[in-house]
Amino acid sequence: MVAGICWRLPLSIVLIGYRGSGKTTIGRLLAERLGWPFVDSDVFLVERAGRSIKEIFEAGGEEAFRDLETRVVEELSELQNHVIALGGGAVNRPENRAALRAARHTVVYLKCHAQELHRRIESDPKTKTDRPNLTALGGGLAEIEKLLLEREPIYREIDDLEIDVSGFTPQQAVTEILRRSAV
Q1: Mean pLDDT of the chain
Q2: Which tens digit of pLDDT belongs to each residue from 37-83?
């Protein structure tokens, strides 16, 4: 988190974090509270591609998916007065981070403990059908811990605000974002 942030409205709020951190659920609620539209980058990408993320991975591998994702991030970065939920790995690419920085949106990292992420992911019936495993570790707790170790420094590099949502309901997370961001 950057100290002494100047919150820049009416630009968008971008939610980042690992799969299962609540970006979509919290994003929808936050957008409703602000009276702004909500966009989920993964849903946007799937609609554009006409295939699920899992199908994109199977057909072209992670690189093909990340290339599509970069085009989506560039397009969504131009939106104002939106709440945008980015895919968990979207900020891994330097060009995506650069697009977010250039847009000067408020970036909120939804931090969540690995065990809680695992519980949430396992309880989501769409995980098995729509989401690929991201490593040879098979999508379980070990994969989550490995990827969090890699991604957390990147999330923190780009965020303006970090909220630990491990024990929050989505409504509590929205309240905390609004309280701490002075939106």
Answers
A1: 87
A2: 999 999 999 999 999 888 898 898 889 999 999 999 999 999 999 99
- pTM (whole model) above 0.85: yes
What are the tokens at 17? 């974090």
Q: Is the pLDDT of residue 133 over 80?
A: no
Question: Which is nearest to 170 in space by CA: 29, 52, 58, 55?
Answer: 29
Residues 6 or more apart whose CB falls under 8 angstroms from that of 83 comprise 12, 13, 15, 27, 28, 30, 31, 34, 36, 37, 38, 39
Rounded Cα–Cα distance for residues 89 and 58 (Å): 17
46: region left, alpha or beta (phi > 0 left; psi from -120 to 50 alpha):
alpha
Three-state SS string over the chain comes to CCCCCCCCCCECEEEECCCCCCHHHHHHHHHHHHCCCEEEHHHHHHHHHCCCHHHHHHHHHHHHHHHHHHHHHHHHCCCECCEEECCCCHHHCHHHHHHHHHHCCEEEEEECCHHHHHHHHHHCCHHHHHCCCCCCCCCCHHHHHHHHHHHHHHHHHHCCEEEECCCCCHHHHHHHHHHHHCC
